[in-house]
Description:
There is one protein chain. This protein is mainly beta. Helix content is 11%, strand content 35%. It has 6 helices and 39 strands. A hairpin with a 6-residue loop joins strand 2 (41-43) and strand 3. The termini are far apart. The model is unreliable at 1-23, 504-553 and 611-619 (pLDDT under 50). Its main location: membrane.
Amino acid sequence: MDMLKGSLFELLGTFALIFLVHAQDQSGFISIDCGISEDSSYTDQVTGIYYTSDATFIDTGISNSISPEFKTNSLPQQLWNVRSFPEGINNCYTLRPARGRGNKYLIRAQFMYGNYDAKNQLPEFDLILGVNMLESVQLDNASSVISKEIIHVLSSDYIYVCLVNTDSGIPFISALELRLLDNSMYETQSGSLVRYARWDFGSPYELIRFKDDNCDRFWFPYNSGEWKMLNTSRTIDTDDDNKLQLTSIVMSTAVKPLNTMEPLKFSWESTDPTSKFYIYLYFAEVEELQLNESREFNIFLNGNLWHGPLTPESFEATAMYRISSSISEKFEFSIYKTNSSTLPPIINALEVYLVKQLLQSQTDQKDVDAIMNIKSLYGVKKNWQGDPCAPENYSWEGLNCSYNDYNPPRIISLNLSSSRLTGNITPYISNLTLLQSLDLSQNGLNGPIPDFLSQLPLLRSLNLTGNKLTGSVPVELIERYKNGSLLLSVKSNPELCWPGSCKKKNKFVVPVVVSVTAAFIFLTTLATFWWIRRGRQEVGKVEEMDAEMDSNKRQFTYSEVLTITNNLEKVVGKGGFGTVYYGHLDGIQVAVKMLSQSSIQGYKQFQAEVNYNKFITEM
């Protein structure tokens, strides 16, 4: 029997431990301390929350520490540092939680100025979530802590939190936190919920959050000199239909009016007459009532019955919520006891959320995935932050997008010219299915031109000039170029050739001819590219596909010819006109022929050869 009892207690202890671990689970948390050094992390000693550096979530900004005078023992560690953004208008954090699109998150940004810049100038700036304006950040003083919070269902796998410079000071941020919520919590007809108030009535604590609240909601104390604070050491039952996951410590305190004949009143103001609010009121009886005692009350909002009569359950949480539109600038709740009640009204907690319609859509998810992969693969150094296309005035450099009302924007043009790209042309580009223009010119891309480029149905312009591409140009691209449906530019890729000709191709050699006479120096550069195909048959070159190619002969200065030949350093032979020198022009081998005064052939014959060959370039 004793063995059975021991096994039972052990089993119950195991279940209790599992429940505790689950309750303190941070798997749905992303906790970022903004401004701490890269690769830094720590566990907060008070909350047990694991914080990491923001360096991997943003490419811009400067790390700073607040002034030592503000680092008090009670100040949370995640407020000791900030990241400020003196450069650029729009600076964005990019987060990709494990559970993305379709999941509900509490997203919170915290701000404490702390005179980090020693200027004693409080900034004002805007906060954008995704592609929509969320709120303006305004601080009362250097020590005030502002937290902006929204409950939002993700429409994308990515979350963008952006700080916008409004010419009222340099934006900064102290901490950024994401908390995964159950989708059944805080259900709405439409829109997201911006926290307007979250009050813990009768609380003696400065702030309640995780671990006491598994969702890490911030519960702020709310008391009045006209109220009496109530509390109980008993655990409040919050499990009955607890979709809101109420916490016992919040529900274990309450307030009631000192004058038992007076109503319990509290209020807040709204500056927008079109605002809609979700209002949650929480009640639980925290006093042991005698048989002859009762508590019953009606709840009024701005003089109109909101709910009632209500009798709080003994040591059991009850939640009431309504959607209320602004009918005036002030929301005033009055809770009156009923005539049959012997005790005054009470209230334990309250939440108020402003309904926020985030109408602007983020960029199409497939386009975002593609461009993010391109950015990562090539290490693009452009200021690519936040959503690629939206807001429209903050779209990424080098991108053009199509916009159709509130539908997701699509990427239609990508310009990565002169971006120091290396490696092959990535197949991620093929996922930009509405691409009309692609410019990858003047980079170090190598390998063949991939066939998937010809499969982009809307592609109208393709510029691959100035790379190190090899092999043959895909036949489909050439056909589209010939029928006028594609503007194609692939010049200055020395190892590129026509289809079917690559195996027969000899190295390109460009003769450059130079003559020197006693009266003046006459330089003529002979630039001839040829293929050997049964005798003297000439093969067309890749450059002939470039519509912008100039048919006029290119001219060079004498100093340029000296550069080409490295000051006439290497002699490769002698001919009828004189000495021939070795050199390089645009990465291509060249021969430079000099007409000497003792040449057995005269200048006229030399000039005739220049004029005879259509590829000769004369200075």
